[in-house]
Amino acid sequence: MTRTILHLDMNAFFASVEQQANPALLGRPIAVVGSASRTVILTASYEARASGVKTGMTVGEARRHCPELTLVVADNRKYTHTSAGIMAILRDFTPLVEVFSIDEAFLDVTGSLSLFGGAERIARLIKTRISHAFGLTCSIGIAPNKLLAKLASEMKKPDGLTVIPPEAVGRILDTVPIREMCGIGRQTERVLALYGIRTCGDLGRFPVEVLTKHFGIVGTRLHLMGLGVDESPVVPEEEAAEVKSVGHSMTLERDIEGRDEILRHLLQLAEMVGRRARRYRVGGKTVTLTVRYADFSTFTRQATRQEYTNASEEIYREATTILDSFVLTQPVRLLGVRLSGLRHQGEQLPLFPDERRRALATAAMDGVNERYGGFTVTFGTLLGEEQGSRVISPAWRPEGIHRVEVE
To answer: Which residue range is the domain that position 356 belongs to?
Structure first.
């Protein structure tokens, strides 16, 4: 049976949310940055993009393109709240919703077509509801599979609606540059260009044995992509495979060098990781520390414990031990802590009184923070600190153990 898949992509999501939150920004060129002291553009409004402002530019470069550019510091809570609301709207049309990132989702509406009057009508209803609820626009692609639906959503922006019917797949792919296909990066594009492959049509017609000789098993996948073939299902949250780690990283407000300041951020990260692990009743044995220097060079080191844990203090202790095992050679731009080697933990209280008191105190602190947000109750060391990174990963997802990777 032919499936009908929708891919929804919110338009200039962070910037659009900021414009809706502050009407004075509507219609103006704005760019979202990680903090007031950071110099890289996270995303820009379409008004700014029209002047040449792009994600990844420095603020100085962006201002050369658009002198009237307004900078807005990112606000994760706005984006996550809005994203969760949008995903709730999507689930009103089908239970088969796969959250792809904070501003993207796939929907399998094959079973909903007769109920709502067809795929295009579903797409227009979704666009209308999101507009009414949040004042935001999105682009939607409709196609027989996820690969083509994502390609379709990129074809008309902003506020687009594009359909790739099964009978038109070959004709459309014949002219689509391979770089526009999700999953083909710059390096792969350069290698394929050496074979004279520049469009998806070229890729689909190219001998698959040559591709597999160069790329291995990936060559077969590339061949199928060139033909527009993708059998992967839309996987809703409750069916998604369990992740193997719980992690959190933060781009710092400014580059730091002092050990005490680094340790405060590590404690904050350890508490974020521990709280999420406890929420989903998992513990882990391996703690990984990630450090990114001011010049963007990055390294990771890890340590494995004898026993499983989800206690913030123990995660912090392991991260500190890792930090002390080497000499920092530059100021630090980003820190990350990850807990892996997970297993589900029981709910019983510890046997010994001291451990039981700590567990009860931790549970009480988690309860307050879950209800009132962030670090309402926190370690004394963190009092007075601004909590959390202002930069959220595009891969952030609204809820569940699958949504734990935040940058």
So the answer is: 241-403
